Amino acid sequence: MRGGYGGSGIAKKPKGPDGGNGGNGGDVYVGCSSNLYLLKEFGQKILFTAGNGSVGARNNKTGKEGDDVEILLPVGTSIYDKKTGKLIFELNKIDERFLVCKGGRGGLGGLTSGIGERGEEKKLILNLRLIADFGLIGLPNAGKSSLLNEITNARAKVANYPFTTLEPNLGVFEGKCLADIPGLIEGASAGKGLGIAFLKHIEKVEVLLHCISCETQNALKDYQTVRHELSEFKLELTTKPEIIILTKTDLVDLYYVQKLTKELKKENKKVIPVSIHNYQSLEKLKKLLNE
How many CB atoms lie within 10 A of CB 93? Predict the structure, then answer.
């Protein structure tokens, strides 16, 4: 990102009117928005510049200042200096605004003409971590996206194969934000299956909704696999409040659902069986989320 150049001042002509100063270059700001997908624009464009100041004019008239630029970034974006790796800003509140690059000062006019200054230039790394009230986590194909679609206004892609979700989906329920985190697999904390990119999104989620499909042959192993990857990536992730959601209960008999529930309650007292085709189970889940 780069501030605008300052405009040059204009020199006084012999027996003529005084020359004016050049206009200051525009500044570059970053603002904070709730729109998660704003970072997509940086895939097409890598340089963002403010407007340049205009040259000074006769009769002591200062040149016009360059236009400022405001770049909107999603809430949860951390901004790092690429050269030093130092954190510059962290956007945590909607409508926050920070000055990133100051525009150059305009050159002085008068007996001689001064050249305008260059604007500040910074090479930045933008790193997005989701901020959500609830995060749907679990192995691939655990029914997270289907559940998100049912209890919010989201329209996440759903299919019966792993890794349908390759980037987080968001939905809103009763004013609370739910994030459908792409599926974690064994080795995710070491980068397997884009795991580190997915795990980063869990850092700023308040409550974990750990989805485990009733189609599994070993619910306890599924649960422990994901918990292990959380602890390997960052131990404090395992201290977040957690609810286990047994999904797809309509695909197995009641006895098997009860068996899985009993097994998982040894790990976590909050276990709730849910089917997207069972209205009562969805209402029970919504009540729990409200509480």
Answer: 9
E-assigned strands of the chain? Answer: 28-33, 69-74, 77-81, 87-90, 97-101, 124-128, 132-138, 169-173, 176-180, 205-213, 242-247, 271-273
Q: Of 128, 163, 197, which residue is a domain's last?
A: 128
Identify the domain boundary among 128, 147, 170. Answer: 128
Number of domains in the chain: 2
User: Average pLDDT by consecutive 10-residue portion of the chain (291 residues)?
Assistant: 93 74 95 74 84 88 93 87 92 87 92 88 86 85 86 59 54 79 59 57 86 92 89 86 94 93 90 94 92 88
In a domain? residue 165: yes
pTM: 0.58
Name residue 245's amino acid.
I
Start-to-end CA distance of the chain, whole Å, equals: 44
